[in-house]
Design a protein that fits this description.
The protein has helices at about 15-25, 45, 65-75, 85-120, 130-150, 165-175, 180-185, 190-200, 200-205, 210-215; strands at about 5-10, 30-35, 55-60, 60-65. The chain is an alpha+beta fold. The chain folds into 2 domains: about 5-80 and about 205-215, Glutaredoxin (3-Layer(aba) Sandwich); about 85-200, Glutathione S-transferase Yfyf (Class Pi), Chain A, domain 2 (Up-down Bundle). α1 (about 15-25) packs parallel to α3 (about 65-75).
Length: about 220
């Protein structure tokens, strides 16, 4: 099979979800780093007209949007299967993945994660404390709902690992680097246990920010 090439910013939760999925599949890949400052210029803007990451390149096929990439990988690399065969479990997986994109990222990680991690460490900017405070009520709502959906189960959508677990875990692990993490998880101990299990997986150990930065340097 032709090589999978992943274009992304090291540390991006979305990019990490693609890399972790490839790791879960046992597939080799090549990582091509994209600098945040160059995402909206050539050559990356020709790969992704909206200047975002990640982009997957495979055998001349270029694909952007993380959910589309994850589902594509699960179709072309069917083992192990990461989409449930049960229709209700598959629907729950889709629901959780959309919660991740529309509520966990939009208004939470792209505010708290940005101002606590991206702005100071990559852009040399001071965090906007007012913006962070404004985002916290929505963050609590999202964390509480993910905790409710997880319940006493081992995974978010089924009795086995699915794309939803990979997608959400990369974002929560990013937020775990912020001082807001303790408050957000105080009422969600099951999410803490679940994330610890996810981080213990070989796929997550292989795709930490530090590890991906090493791939970028190589």
């Amino acid at each position: 099979m032709s090589e999978f090439i992943v274009h992304s910013v090291p540390g991006s939760p979305f990019g990490r979800a693609v890399l972790a999925t490839l790791e879960e599949k046992g597939s080799s890949y090549r990582f091509v780093p994209v600098a945040p400052s160059s995402a909206k210029s050539e050559p990356h803007i020709s790969r992704h007209p909206f200047g975002r990451v990640p982009v997957l390149e495979h055998d001349g096929f270029m694909l952007y949007e993380t959910q589309a990439i994850l589902r594509f990988l699960d179709r072309v690399l069917p083992n192990p299967r990461l989409t449930p065969t049960d229709p209700k479990a598959a629907a729950r997986m889709d629901q959780v993945m959309n919660i991740c994109d529309w509520y966990l990222f939009q208004g939470v990680n792209n505010v708290i994660g940005f101002h606590r991690i991206v702005a100071p460490h990559l852009l040399g900017m001071a965090p906007d404390e007012a913006a962070i405070a404004t985002a916290m009520p929505k963050a609590h709502l999202v964390f509480n709902e993910l905790s409710r959906l997880l319940g006493s189960g081992s995974y978010l959508a089924a009795d086995q690992l699915t794309l939803a677990d990979i997608h959400v875990a990369t974002h929560l692990d990013f937020l775990a680097q912020t001082p807001e993490w303790a408050a957000l998880t105080a009422a969600c101990p099951n999410l803490l246990s679940w994330l610890a299990r996810m981080n213990a997986r070989a796929s997550f150990k292989a795709t930490t920010w530090e590890r991906v930065a090493q791939l970028a340097a190589a």
